[in-house]
Amino acid sequence: MNLTQLVNRKPLPDPWSEGEKIPWNDPEFSARMLEHHLTQEHDMASRRLTIIDKQCTWINKQTKPHSKILDLACGPGLYSERLTQRGHKLTGIDFGPASIKHAKEQAKEKGLDITYKLEDIRTADYGTDNDLVLFIYGEFNVFKTSDIKQILAKAHKSLTQGGKLIIEPNRYETIKNEGNSPPSWYSTQGGLFSPKPHICLMENFWHPEQNTATNRYIIIDAATGEATLHASSMIAYTRDDYKTLLTEAGFTDIEFYESLTGEEIEEQKHLEVVVAHKK
Ligand SMILES: C[S@@+](CC[C@H](N)C(=O)[O-])C[C@H]1O[C@@H](n2cnc3c(N)ncnc32)[C@H](O)[C@@H]1O
Fold this sequence. Notes:
The protein is an alpha/beta fold. 30% of the residues lie in helices and 27% in strands. Helix 2 packs across helix 5 (97-110). S-adenosylmethionine is lined by residues 24, 45-46, 73-75, 78, 94-96, 99, 120-122, 136-139.
């Protein structure tokens, strides 16, 4: 996109019309994102290990000893590793190549028997007899409803009777506020979206009739002026919506928690936790 095309961009993009999500599965982007997963300076891609340790203590209590656990969108395996160390048998699926490579290397180095699969969770096989399926840290809302229905149906099918699903979506208000937040920008010598000097312009849109927020990231290369557009959309669901989605997928006894430690934590207030059971 050149600057004239940028100026003439659509004032209000339809959700998903300009892209589904940030390019987690692009090899170079994934390598840059891995640094954000692993840094202990912020919680942007994965949370800091002090938080993850507490969350794994809580997750461990939600399932029986020696459970078979599926970690959907596992990233670099920070939860899979810790739950394996607590005696469970983990499979992690993610389509970020650098994350899965790192996760496999770490498992080998630490002598942990974890199966990691570099696959898209929309098409991946979830296996059978899982005692617990995890889908954590906000990615739930980034999928179209048709995809999320399939993911939930597959998760339900893969669970053993008495098994559980734990999801950690963004709260309705989080997404609405994000969609309604004003445009912003930054300049950098190199960052997540490009290793070269660039300006990143961010625009946000809220589509009330679809309960969907769309974020645009426009990356302008400092040397060429060429603009690259990334976009992602997130659906805001109410607790009633979660109950409907999960019930339709066959789940029962749907419970809500304030966080993945069960308690209200200031830093995690933008997320909530939903636990659903397979009878
Ligand atoms: C916010 S990160 C969370 C990672 C991990 N759950 C954690 O908390 O450390 C979201 C993850 O979702 C993955 N992801 C997004 N869409 C995916 C898809 N369609 N299939 C597989 N993984 C996906 C990304 O690659 C990324 O690792």
